[in-house]
Amino acid sequence: MFFRILKKDLKRKKTMNIILLLFIILAAMFLSSSVDNLVAVNGAIDHFISISKTPDFFAVALTDGITDEIADFLKGNENVEEYEVINGFNLTNEDITITKCQEEEGRTKYERTNVLHLGAVPENFMKVFRMDGGSLSLKSGEIAFLKAEAEQNHLQVGDRVSIKVGEVEQEFTIAAIVKDAVFGSTMMGFKRALITEEDLEKFARQDGLVHTRIYNVNYADKEKFKEQWAEQGFMVISTIEGRSTIRMCYIMDMLIAAILIIVSVCLILLAFLVLRFTIVFTLQEDYKEIGIMKAIGMKDAGIKGLYLIKYLAISIIGAVIGFFLGFPFGKAILKQAIVNILVDSTEQNVAINFACAAAVVFIVLLFCYLSTNKLKKISAMEAIRNGSNGERYQVKNHLKLWKRPKMKPYFYMAVNDILSSLKRFGILLATFCLGTILILLPLSAASTLKSDGIIYSFSISPSDVYMDTGRWETYIVDMDLLFQDMEEIEEKLKENGLTAKTGADIGYMIPCYADDPKDKVTYYVLQAVGSWDRHYALLSGQEPELSNEVMITELTAKELRVGIGDTIHFGTGDEAKEFIITGTYQSMMNMGQGFRVSRSAELEKEYAAGIFCLQAEIEEMESEEACERLREIFPDYKVMNAEGILDSMIGGIVEQIDLTTIFIVGTVLMINSLITILMMKTIMTKERGDIALLKSIGFSDKSLLAWQTARILLILAAAIGIGTVLSNVLAPFTIGPIFSMMGATSIELVTNTWEAIAGYPVLLFLVTGVSSLFCAGGVRKVDLKEVNNIE
Amino acid sequence: MDSLKVRDLCKTYIINKRQNNVLKNINMEIKQGEMVAVMGPSGSGKSTLLYTVSGMDHITAGKVDFFGRDMSSLNARQMSDLRLDEMGFIFQQMYMLKNLSIYDNIVLPAYQSKSGRNRAKRKEINNRAKELMHKLGISEIAEHDINEVSGGQLQRACICRSLINHPKMIFADEPTGALNQQNSKEVMKELNRINAEGTTVMLVTHDMKVAAKNDRVLYIEDGNIKGEYVLGKFTDKQETRERERKISNWLMEMGF
Predict the structure, then answer these.
(1) Does the interface ipTM go beyond 0.95?
(2) What is the C-alpha separation between A212 and A73, in angstroms, rounded?
(3) pTM (2 decimals)?
(4) Which of A543, B59, B165, B179 has its CA 20 to 30 A from that of A188?
(5) How far apart are CA A210 and CA A232, in angstroms?
(6) CB contact under 8 A, B99 and A696
(7) Would you tell me how many other CB atoms lie within 10 Å of the CB of residue A421?
(8) Residues of chain B positioned with their CB less than 8 A from the CB of A413
(9) What is the band of A346 on the pLDDT scale with cuts at 50, 70, 90?
(10) CA A553 – CA A557 distance, rounded (Å)
(11) Stronger pLDDT, B120 or B27, i.e. the higher one
(12) Which of B59, B101, B125, B162 to mutate to test the interface with A (most CBs of A within 10 A)?
């Protein structure tokens, strides 16, 4: 008897049951794949850092290739458990040329926005892996590039590049594209090209070359080593301490994964919301039959069992399908999310997927059990009367048609329906609202990164033109060449009738401490040079003017526990110089760490670690025009406007966020569309009698279409409004901390009004509107005789 | 002039690949201002006749003219306008939209009609709705929910709704079928009054008391109109019993 009723029910409510099955499949698929991914991503970075053998500490320094005081210091040091020195060279733009791409012949200029280090394949520390996770081994004449570098230059395995160091030039064939745990993250500005030890030796044999060496150290005694290292005051380009810093550099890669996981979690929530809606709706639809079953003497447990068996059957089928679909779906999401990280195969997590699918079955049955509890409380007659006992404690009609003479009946009915069934339409509102927030948050992050003001967050003073001469590595060794180049640029511009001032920022890696010399830590200190006297954005205080004044980033001030008016020491031993802090600022360079001294400050040239941002300010000329003229005058230099320089620094990140936003927009549109179709179909099933009645009193199909569609679009409009307000409230707590971690501690989040207020909402309206119109078309199929189905 | 002119009307349903002829070559006329009842045993095709001649259901063959217009030549839009402005429907079950108050249910068709979109006209609609509700004695339930009133009150509200657009003809499918005797009397009193004011009425009923209050009674059996009995205009109470007796005798002759 039970199974006969069940069979008939499955047949009769085919659409509803298919809808339910579809959402159980989606819930199982999203839950299993996203939990699996969450576990995978969480462990992946640690695993990647671990298998690549990332050291406890590493430093990058320039040497002449003969004397090496850092290597001497490490050798036999009792506080060092093990160490390794990776020899190599930093390549300038002129040093590397693409000689043959698979698709085209001829020499092409190599494009690079990061420092490119040419070194031998690492054997002990800082190992790299092929894209499939395999270890890397090269033959003589072969080279491997990091994924980001290869992508920037459209390089593929089999392409050829020519490398010239000093007087020696050699052509290499690209044998592999690799993933690098230490330097592979989006935020790392130092990338590697790898060749064999034998090939590297051919370059290294030459005299008078500047070598760039990476010193990897695993501590025996961390505290003592740090103290010793600070005491030595080595001239280094960069030092990175601890795996946690490397992990932190993956924040942008994690961010994309995190956003996708949040999207998945939201989709699961939506799936369950719809599930609950469908179960409750089915029960309400069945009230009459439940009442009859009660009236003829069936027990509550028996009626409940009928529903439980039905949902158990549907949820098991759905969970099994979702479980299997979860694998390819999860892999596709993971592939998009973590391009720079090496992740273990998801095959190991079958247990997680299974547990999640089982959880879906459990939750569905729990929902069903709780929802069917109501059956106990209602009498047979109440059930026959569709759950109504004739009592009412609140005013049900929120609007009065006759009090709104301007309102069209279909619009009034739409508004009245929403207000009368807030709980039912609340699910739709929550879904649309969530979708809006999911779109607006990454959009706000991308808009902020693309905004004109973001340049201040890099401690850059905006100028008309930014130039890349491709000689940064040479400037570090020969600072005079920088001043010479700046003078030449000004002179050449003068010859061309342009009056210009130039400037650049020199970066120094200097050991610093506040009170106790033992607490010395190496920080990045910037100093503006050149004829152009420019100013920088501050968070508090004043810019340093005197030679002993300095401004400090908020993060470093917190770390050193200092503030405006305090003294800071740069250098080692008796040569340490005192500086007074005059102001604080924020910077997304060096993860928000560092100082900026005045133009008159005297710092040891030996500490110079990088030259940053050669700028030119042209008199009486707009940026675009100035860039055009300078490109003509300096065809060998890369000339950029503010957008260009930002793109070279964070273009990859913005691109990733844009891609993620597109993915989210696509997903949200799909979900909105799906949920609109499902809810409208469900509601219309219940409303067929009402539709027939309205037809019988003369409502045209057009008016009925407008009524059904208006309901959805009104909810969407409200959801977009609420979503926009909520995303503005949530942004400082969600995107803000991410910017803080990158160094922008007090960033003003920007909303692109056109995209946020007009662009995406219009798209949402279009897609949801079309979906609802498509569904509302069902009113045409409602026969007038169905008026007899009214409840 | 004929309100309704039906020629060779056929209605066929296919059930389990078998043809079921519910209406077979029906021919009939209803004059303007007439009140006609259709009677017959269950399954004879009474309601199907009402629904097909009112355009609520498609016809298989034949022709139906409503005030001189061939209904089969009208498109969906024109049919909606016809139902909205020129016809009124009363069902056995008191169908109303549950999210609206009684009053809003009544004024809804008027607000939907083309003339109802005018603000000044809406004042007139409200006055008419109030007047109708007053006449039918349901003014006090205007702001009530549909599940808070009695069946009789609800059916009277349905009558108000059917009359709000001054229809030329009312179609009623067993309008008293779900009501007690007292409520049934009141509803029929209203229908007679509406008819007296010039609105044509066609209703389906099982009840001889209801049929007795009509000008003419059609007897349908097995999809054919077997006969008709002309009673003439209903005037007062005394006449009722006599009319009922006549109908009863006629129906017995017809085999009912």
Answers:
(1) no
(2) 17
(3) 0.71
(4) A543
(5) 21
(6) no
(7) 13
(8) 97, 99-100
(9) very low
(10) 6
(11) B27
(12) B101
